[in-house]
Amino acid sequence: MTDTAVTVPARARDALIVALDLPERDAALAVARDLKGRCGWVKVGMTLYDGAGPDIVRELRALGFKVFVDLKLHDIPHQVRGACGVLVRQGANLFTVHASGGRAMLEAAASATAAAAERFGVPRPAVIAVTVLTSLDDAALAEMGFSQSAGEHVAALAALARDAGVDGVVCSPAEAAGMRALLGPEALVVTPGVRPSGAETGDQSRVATPAEAIAAGASHLVVGRPVTEAPSPGAAADAIVAEIETAIQGRE
Ligand code: C5P
């Protein structure tokens, strides 16, 4: 795999990814304009990608953000190869695939991304793997025919993704320390389920503060509603970045 342009950030602003889970382009861009210069990244998931159309990636790049496109690709290698090439062309800097797609699919994602980056003359985006959805527990996995515990399954899938040339994982803050130990210092460990101290937890059941997630070894934190639903998204992002900064200094 060629070197990716996305590395474990030294600066707090580059560690914060704000999830723009809004179905309307204009509303998402209004939040993004408020965040401009205050966080390095925004995340486009299926709500915004499908609601606004793929061009939203280019528009967010034009505002100066790096863009994480979180579509969790999971299909036969041929289809995933094609989708990765399209995401590179659209300007994604980071995107997700399901590790449970298996080695051939993961290798197709990694090689297609590198090839497309070369073809379009852009730095190679990073590819990260979803292991076991955090909504699944041991009982749910057993019901699906898996004999390993969720923790064992997460570790096996993360190692498979690493061996296939994928750059890291998305995982809960509770799994971050284990993933960092397994994957090493260069891996991307991206954690949603982050809530600033004192914030509402909403439908996230196991949450950590930004400081806890960074201390556990997360490279990037995904925060959505605590920023997008704040009276001032920019001010909410500033407060999280300040908390990350203190945690990064504590880790050095
Ligand atoms: O609004 P909130 O901060 O809960 O948003 C979290 C983001 O992270 C959402 O975009 C969601 O899709 C994503 N995510 C998650 N839990 C996972 C994987 C992804 O909340 N296990």
What are the main properties of this structure?
252 residues, alpha/beta, TIM Barrel, 8-stranded parallel beta barrel, 11 helices, 8 strands, binds cytidine-5'-monophosphate
Can you walk me through this structure?
By secondary structure, this protein is of the alpha/beta class. It has one domain (3-251): Aldolase class I (TIM Barrel, Alpha-Beta Barrel). Helices cover 47% and strands 15% of the residues. The protein has helices spanning 25-35, 46-52, 55-62, 77-90, 103-120, 138-143, 150-163, 173-183, 210-215, 225-228, 233-251, and strands at 16-19, 41-45, 66-73, 94-98, 126-130, 168-170, 188-191, 220-223. An eight-stranded parallel β-barrel has the order 1-2-3-4-5-6-7-8, surrounded by seven helices. Helix 4 packs parallel to helix 5 and helix 7 (150-163) crosses helix 8 (173-183). The longest helix is centred in the last third of the chain and has 19 residues, at 233-251. It is globular and about 45 Å long. The relative contact order is 0.15. Bound molecules: cytidine-5'-monophosphate (C5P). Cytidine-5'-monophosphate is lined by residues 19, 21, 43, 45, 134, 170, 192-193, 204, 222-225.
User: What class do helices, strands and sheet pairing give?
Assistant: alpha/beta
Q: Label the CATH architecture.
A: Alpha-Beta Barrel
Q: Give the distance, in angstroms, between the N- and C-terminal Cα atoms.
A: 28 Å
Number of helices: 11
The distinct bound ligands, ions and cofactors come out as: cytidine-5'-monophosphate
Fraction of residues in H or I helices: 40-55%
Look at the structure and give the mean pLDDT.
94
Q: What string, H for helix and E for strand, traces the elements in order?
A: EHEHHEHEHEHHEHEHEHH
- Return residue spans where pLDDT drops below 50 for at least 5 consecutive residues: none
Q: What's the name of the CATH homologous superfamily?
A: Aldolase class I
β-sheet strand percentage: 15-25%
What is the top-level CATH class?
Alpha Beta
CA-based gyration radius: 17 Å
